[in-house]
Amino acid sequence: MKPLINLPALRRPLIRPLLKGKAAGKAAGKAAGKAAGKAAGNGNVSDGVHADESLSLSLSLSLSLSLSLRAFSDDALLRAWRKVRANGGGPGVDGEDLRRFESRLRANLAKLREDLLSGTYRPRPVLRVLVPKASGGRRPISILAVRDRVAQRAAHDVLAPLFEPRFLDCSYGFREGRSTRLAVQAVIRHRDAGLRFAVDGDIKRCFENIDHALLMQFVAREVHDWLMLDLIRKWLKARVFNDMSSPSPGPMRGAAAAGVEGVEEVGALQGSAMSPLLCNVYLHPFDAAMARAGYALVRYADDWLILCRDEGASRRALADATRALSELKLAVNPYRTRIARFDEGFAFLGAFFIRDEHFWLSPQAGPKPKESS
Question: What does the radius of gyration of the chain's CA atoms come to, in whole angstroms?
Fold first, then answer.
């Protein structure tokens, strides 16, 4: 059976050639200097050619860091800090809160920039807590150290515009200018076009089950900055302290308080600035596969619907979606995935659809009321 997703050929782990980049850059610079001097001294044309090649290599290595240099400039880090401060949140495992970080802001940002651009940056361990979900149960949320939040936000703000033109219109989650309201409007358009059945899909532990090697292959299709790729890999591999005793973010407890590392490896940390973007990058091949098959998909991060004309088409869509996700090493949650009908009603992204109407399940989920003049 022909695969639905065109996966990249898996290469050896990216980290080994990436770490050689700085050494290769120094070697290239030395080689260029020697070759140029030799060519100038004896007029040997072949030596001049080698000098040109070495200079070209050195230049290409410098250009390959252009994303990192933009992402971690003084101004970019200051903008990232302001966004982190506006979002609020408590301290990570190091106990440093926003106010304490801000008390030495200039020094902290300067040290962070130095670490990021020198390759010596190491993310601090991540505190993971469980927070209640509106639909019931609890969702794991990661609390990063403030410095790591700033670094991820700065990287995100440079990477997101790079990937944005590649994403499809069916993807609505965590993208500039898109929202749950627009996703609901897309569902309504498909319904009004005669698609009265829906595959209401749920991916089993999507963020936790993202395959790191496969994700890095997808990222490397667009990102050629070796330092940025190395940073993303470090964030994916960050150590996790599991604070499962707390229903909401708070002081360290349990394993974290005892200094015991969490042993579970997490795919992409929910609660970090980079995780929604990385989720969209990882699920983009799923979007493309469904689009090539002609399905009307509406996806918001790991929540998705496929709108169909009848039950038979819905069953085929579910089978194809299950297969496409399996090629990404993900699985459909059989207990939370079903074929729904508008005539019977179903909920999606905070809206309840019934026949030709829809209702917002909470004031926060619906569109904001207009302010009176």
Answer: 24
DSSP state of 332: B
**pLDDT score of 41 more than 50:** no
* Distance, CA of 373 to CA of 361 (rounded, Å): 27
Length of the chain: 373
Cβ-Cβ contacts under 8 Å for 78 (sequence gap 6 or more): 109
Beta bridge partners of 308: 197
pLDDT of 47 > 80? The answer is: no
How far apart CA 241 and CA 332 sit, in angstroms, is 27
What the block records as the tokens of 326 is 């399996």
CB 113 within 8 A of CB 80: no
pLDDT of residue 20: 39
206-216 confidence digits (pLDDT tens)? 999 999 999 99
- Residue 55 DSSP SS3: helix
CB 127 within 8 Å of CB 256: yes
Nearest residue to 282 (alpha-carbon basis) of 228, 334, 208: 208
**Residue 244 pLDDT > 90:** no
Q: What is the pLDDT of residues 305-363, one digit of tens each?
A: 999 999 999 999 999 999 999 999 999 999 999 999 999 999 999 999 999 999 999 87
SS3 annotation, 32-53: HHHHHHHHHHHCCHHHHHHHHH
Q: What are phi and psi of 238, to 5 degrees?
A: -60, 140
Backbone angles phi, psi at 202, to 5 degrees: -135, 130
How far, in Å, CA of 86 to CA of 195, rounded?
A: 41
Residue 317 has what pLDDT? 98
The 10 Å Cβ neighbour count of residue 25 is 18
As beta bridge partners, residue 299 has 171, 304
d(CA 4, CA 81): 41
Q: Which residues share a beta bridge with 132?
A: 138
3-class DSSP state of 113: helix
d(C-alpha 342, C-alpha 358), whole Å = 10
Helices 226-236 + 15-42 axis angle, to 10: 160
